[in-house]
From TrEMBL:
Keywords for this protein: Oxidoreductase
Any GO molecular function: oxidoreductase activity, acting on the CH-CH group of donors, NAD or NADP as acceptor
Species for this entry: Marinobacter segnicrescens
Domain Enoyl reductase (ER) positions: 15-329
Pfam families registered for this protein in UniProt: ADH_N_2, ADH_zinc_N
Domain of life: Bacteria
Entry-linked InterPro entries: ADH-like_C, ADH_N_2, ER, GroES-like_sf, MDR_fam, NAD(P)-bd_dom_sf
The protein's name: Enoyl reductase (ER) domain-containing protein
Stored Gene3D superfamilies: Medium-chain alcohol dehydrogenases, catalytic domain, NAD(P)-binding Rossmann-like Domain
Amino acid sequence: NQRWVLRKRPEADITAEHLELVTQPVPDLEDGQVLIRNIYLSLDPTHRLWMSDREQYLPPVQVGDVMRGGTLGVVEESRSDRFKAGDIVKPVVGGWEAFTVADGKMVRPVDRHPDIPLSAYMSVLGSTGITAYFGLLDIGNPQPGDTLVVSAAAGAVGSIVGQIGKLKGCRVVGIAGGPEKCRWLTDELGFDGAIDYRNDDVPASLDRLCPDGVDIQFENVGGDIMDAIYNRLNLNGRLSLCGMISRYNDEGVMPGPKDFGRVLMKRLTVKGFIVIDYQKRFPEALEALTEWVSKDQLKWKNHVVEGLDNALDGLSLLFTGGNDGKLMVRVSEE
Ligand code: NDP
């Protein structure tokens, strides 16, 4: 079995010294277990957090352990009465590895729609779509006519958030890096405006595109971009804090908005969330997302890196904006 093992905790950018690809035998199955051949491995910004020992929402990966990561695969062998060979599944806890051995109770079936590509279950119909769904609808509480601003808007989560916002009748502005990503948002996804933070003046562009202020901030980035949107939040505005990717490569604290008094003066609701908080409600999100996908009301892009040996280089793309859509590794053929 090919597996990536955490060798050293990163203090800044991830490099080759932090993760090592090793070959280990696949253990024999015990009663109740299944052997899964992984087809896709999701690469997520949170992997950088799991590699560090900062305070977080799950235990960090331990040095010497296989790197944790979401996977989708096919059951090759089963000693569980829940699954048979050929079933498409996701382990609750997957890893950066070619094969996963898991207890059948810790594996979820993938209820695949025949017309939808399997890779969609790693993005728009995976935790990406579910994150967008609950982060916007539960915390953002979008109402028709609201102005919604999304950061990392051309990314996996952000692009779905903006489209759901449009479906709910919001005016949607996205912030993304580079003219091509911005064009995709306005020309293909129907965003009302897009700001290229690499070339545009973000505060001035927000003033121009959101003349009536901002009702919902869906925050993926943190730092100056977060501050610029926050400073324009209206009375009773909502800040759904999904991520702060611009700070993940620093080991220090992740600073918040400078003017915290705005929460008081404008009666803001500021709430962080982690998608796993919503585990019991995943079916609700998947039902809605599948319907939107089937009706062509949601578009998405996947960025597929070929081969498990390229996983480490692939992960860095998230921190340079080199990914164009939901980043994942094709570990083996379907
Ligand atoms: P994306 O597909 O959005 O990829 C990350 C993008 O972030 C990059 O493409 C880049 O886009 C942007 N980015 C990276 N560094 C910076 C920076 N310094 N400044 C501005 N933009 C930057 O990844 P995901 O959709 O998987 O994740 C997006 C966010 O959602 C992350 O913060 C992640 O942690 C969070 N998340 C949270 C979850 C939760 O449960 N709370 C679940 C899943 C994700 P660009 O080219 O525009 O710069």
